[in-house]
Amino acid sequence: MNRFIIILVLLLGVLGIKAQATFDYFYLEAEKCRLQEDYSSAMDLYRHCLDINPQAPEALYNMGILHLFLRSDSLGTDYIRKACERDANNPYYLETLAALYLNKRDAESAIPVLEKMASLQSRRSDILSQLVQLYSTVGNTDKAIGALNRIELLEGPSPQISVEKFRLYKEKNQLDSAFMQLQALCDDAPHDMNLRVVVGTQYMQAGDTVKALEIYDEVRRQEPSNTNLQLATMDYYRESGKNSLYNLMRDSLLFSPESPTPLRVLLLKSYFADVQRDSTYAPKLVAAFDSLLAKPQKDAEVLIMKAAYQDYSKQPKEAFCQTMRQVLDVEPGNETALRELLQYYAEQNDEKGVEDISRRGLNYHPEEIAYAYYLGMALAEQKKLADAAEVLQQGLRVRTEDVHPYLVSNVFGVLGDIYYQQQKEQEAFAAYDSALVYMDDNIMCLNNYAYYLSLKGEQLDRAEEMSYRTIRQEPDNITYLDTYAWILFKKEDYAHARTYMDKVVNPERTDEDLLADKTLMGNLIEHAGDIYAHLDEPETALRLWKLAKQKGDDTCTPQLKKKIKRKKYIK
After folding, report:
1. C-alpha to C-alpha distance for 118 and 125, rounded to whole angstroms
2. Which of 197, 454, 524, 548 counts the highest number of beta carbons within 10 A?
3. Where are the alpha helices (DSSP H) in 172-281?
């Protein structure tokens, strides 16, 4: 070989190694930025990687994922498609591309990708099942049947595959092949009467009533009480307009002592469907519930169906909740009943009801933090602060990972309130901080945290910022307005404090009006007086202090009497 060519080859090899090392360095830096959620820097670095090697599939793929994350779907899909072209045997790239096409319902584009995946992962029947659906969607029945055959080779024959082949052959109008599938089903399991009912139903749907009834009669001779046969016969009566036979058979099955609960529920649903079509059927459904529930219940399914009907027919909430109480008598841990009753008692401000249901819920579902939350609040309302804190702490310790951040935030918020009442300020502020980590716009937490900081005269700028966010969300909430005005007062910004406090306690209102306003607590009126005292309006301040005292609700400060006596503000 020419010496110059040898040197050139060696030089290019060295340059190639150096370029790969540079690519690897920037690619790793891009990965670090992506994991740190610094997506802008990650994209710049991936782009630089592609400047070094435009064909690099890993950079193309991750660039595509970033664009998808940033909602640039078209560009993201294009990058991932290019990654698949560069590395056509990478199953992860292909699976992502297939999912993108499927989400867009682009069957034509998804099919070749899934076929490639199926060739690389020949044992994955889930890919073949998707291909069956897609080929059916685009009308390629032959390939859909071929995909079913491939599933059958992997998993063996099954009724589901045979029935699907039956449907596809029917679509092609190849009825002989279609019914051969059904016959094969029966031949493979000659003693499976449920399977024979399925076959009979397919004949019925295909319009071959004679063959279907022949199969039903055969099953009836073997298993006269076969539930699936009875349901199929009912469907036949209904479809053929034999309503009296249909109703007679439905009632016979519904009230038969041998009928299992799932069958009863299914039949009640058909009654329910009748009522939804025609309300005159309602008395018959109510009579069915009364008859069934007159006997002791082994499970709660019929009761839950009754509650669903009560809700649908807009019956009084008390009647619905009475049924849910009966559900708990049968199944004490039934989550549907527990949730419905907890919501009902909370809406009614029924502390005893909330406490009862919350304790039941915690007993059967200790990992459900909602029960701890409501029980903690109920106990706190009863001033059982230590018990309330213990319940909430336990709820936080054993909560499931999928609990909504909103609920976790509220639990920490209530815990903060309890700690503050226990004069544990550090623990209270730590709980509020945790609450805001889970939901930074938890306005009740923001308000209480801000107010307690203002009482201590600490972090007033932060308190003002938190409080302002609450009045942005609820500009007419007098509690939040009072907190914001009080923080401004603590910052000696009295003029602005009055602007907000006048929305709570307007001194132009008459004494009678202010005293009759049940939304105004004494401490709010006292705050207004304090602000006016610092605005050199002592008469207005004294008037408001006296009104605060007349409220007599024990919310005012111990200094109120001295303020009135000395006619001036006292810290």
Report:
1. 8
2. 548
3. 175-188, 193-205, 209-222, 227-239, 243-255, 261-277
Count CB neighbours of 204 within 10 A.
20
Sequence-distant (6+) residues with CB within 8 A of 417 are 380, 428, 448
Q: Residues 6 or more apart from 79 whose CB is under 8 A from it?
A: 60, 61, 63, 64, 67
Task: Determine the Cα–Cα distance for residues 450 and 445; give it in Å rounded to an integer.
Answer: 8
CATH of the domain spanning 157-259, picked from 3.30.590.20, 1.25.40.10, 3.30.450.40, 1.20.950.20? 1.25.40.10
* Burial class for 105, CB neighbours closer than 10 Å (0-12, 13-18, 19+): exposed
Buried b (16+ CB within 10 A) or exposed e, 41-75: ebbebbebbbebbeebbbbbbbbbbbbbeeeeeee
List all residues 6 or more positions away from 252 whose beta carbon is below 8 Å from its beta carbon: none
Phi, psi angles (nearest 5°) of residue 315 = -70, 160
With beta carbons less than 8 A apart as the criterion, state whether 61 and 93 touch. yes
Contact 345, 370 (CB under 8 A): no
Tell me how crowded residue 240 is: count the other CB atoms within 10 A of its CB: 12
CA distance 371 to 390: 13
Kindly give, in sequence order, each residue whose CB lies less than 8 Å from that of residue 152, ignoring residues fewer than 6 positions away: 158, 161
Distance CA 42, CA 475 (A): 41
Cβ burial 275-300 (10 Å sphere, 16+ → b, else e): beeeeeebeebbebbeebeeeebeeb
Contact between residue 117 and residue 94 where contact means Cβ atoms under 8 Å apart: yes
pLDDT digit string (tens) for the chain, length 571 residues: 445 444 433 343 444 456 677 777 777 888 888 888 787 888 888 887 888 888 888 888 888 888 888 777 888 889 888 988 888 888 888 888 888 888 888 888 888 888 888 888 888 888 888 888 888 888 888 888 888 888 888 888 777 887 788 788 878 888 778 778 777 777 777 788 887 888 888 788 878 888 888 888 888 888 887 888 888 888 888 888 898 898 888 888 888 888 888 888 888 998 899 899 888 989 998 999 999 999 888 889 999 999 999 999 999 999 999 999 999 999 999 999 999 999 999 999 898 999 999 999 999 999 999 999 999 999 999 999 999 999 999 999 988 888 899 999 999 999 999 999 999 999 999 999 999 999 999 999 999 999 999 999 999 999 999 999 999 999 999 999 999 999 999 999 999 999 999 999 999 999 999 999 999 999 999 999 999 999 999 999 999 999 999 998 889 999 999 999 999 988 8
User: Whole-prediction pTM value?
Assistant: 0.64
* Strand, coil or helix: 222: helix
* Gyration radius of the chain's alpha carbons: 36
- Encode 415-479 in three state secondary structure: HHHHHHHCCCHHHHHHHHHHHHHHCCCCHHHHHHHHHHHHHHCCCHHHHHHHHHHHHHHCCCCHH
What is the three-state SS of 6-44? HHHHHHHHHHHHHHHHHHHHHHHHHHHHHHCCCHHHHHH
- Residue 229 amino acid letter: L
CB 501 within 8 A of CB 508: no
